[in-house]
Structure formats: structure tokens, C-alpha cells
Amino acid sequence: MDDLIAFIRARLDEDDAAARELAGWPHWHHTHAVTAHGPIILIAAGEDDEEDDEIDVASVERDLPEAAEHIARHDPARVLREVEAKRNVLSIIGSSRNQYDGIDDGVADELLKAIASAWSDHPDYRAKWVP
After folding, report:
1. Residue 122, CA distances (Å) to 40, 65, 76, 106, 117 in order
2. Which of 38, 56, 87, 112 ranks highest by number of CB atoms within 10 Å?
């Protein structure tokens, strides 16, 4: 399971780095989703953003409220908290395995597989890790 733990740690490091890179964006809380029959595009909008005039924000909020709310819920601060929580779970699993009455190895493996399943679309994800 060391390869599974390494996989999870690498994905957490990637999520952490991406969140920290975006954390400095001004006015992150004004995030909106825009689509033109394609993927949703993230736009950091704020009072000082000159490009705001080109975006019909009212239309976006009316037509895509679920997408805009979803994007806003996954702001960098929340992602960083989630990364830290998952790292804590890895630590608990690791330390429990080292104790006499710790967590059962089978249970630990299933917990690790469950965590890794969040990245099942990653090219390094292995079929043997499917929970």
C-alpha cells in the first residue's frame, strides 16, 4: 500500500500547490461560471477588474447558479483545509498501524482506497485501488 499512500500524497501536494497559487487572487469570492457550450471557465471578478464590463454577471448568476455556487465553495482556503484534513487522516492511519491495538490493516487499506478514489480519473490511478 506504500504506492497508494505515495499516490495520495502526490495528489494532495498538487491540490495544495494549485490552491496556494490561486489564494492570492483578489476578490476570489466574486467567482462566476461562464459557458459557451463548452467547459465552465473560472473568472476572478472584482471591482477593479476592467474586464467585468464584458461579462453579463446577472445572466451568469441567473442561468448557472449551481455552477457558480460550486466554484465558489471550492475556493483556495477550503481546498487547503481539505488537503490538511486528508493529510491528518493519512497520519492517523500510519500511526494506528504502528500501535499494538491500532487500526486493522484491511480497514486501513479500504480507507486509503476510498480517499484515492477522488482522483480515479488521474492517469496514475490504478484499477487495484478501486474500493
Report:
1. 20, 28, 21, 24, 10
2. 112
Q: Is the pLDDT of residue 94 over 50?
A: yes
- Specify the amino acid at residue 65: P
- What distance in Å separates the CA atoms of residue 31 and residue 69, rounded to the nearest whole number? 8
- Distance CA(71)–CA(31), nearest Å, equals 7
What pLDDT sits at residue 78?
Answer: 86
What are the angstrom distances between the C-alpha of 34 and each of 10, 65, 114? 30, 10, 32
pLDDT in the model for residue 128:
96
The Cα 119–Cα 11 span in angstroms is 8
16 belongs to a structural domain: yes
Tell me if 102 is assigned to some domain: yes
Has residue 89 been placed in a domain?
Answer: yes
* The Cα angle at residue 106 between residues 103 and 112, in degrees rounded to 5: 85
Single-letter code of the amino acid located at 56: D
Evaluate whether 6 touches 19 at the Cβ level (below 8 Å).
no
The model's pTM is 0.69
As a whole number, mean pLDDT of residues 49-54 equals 47
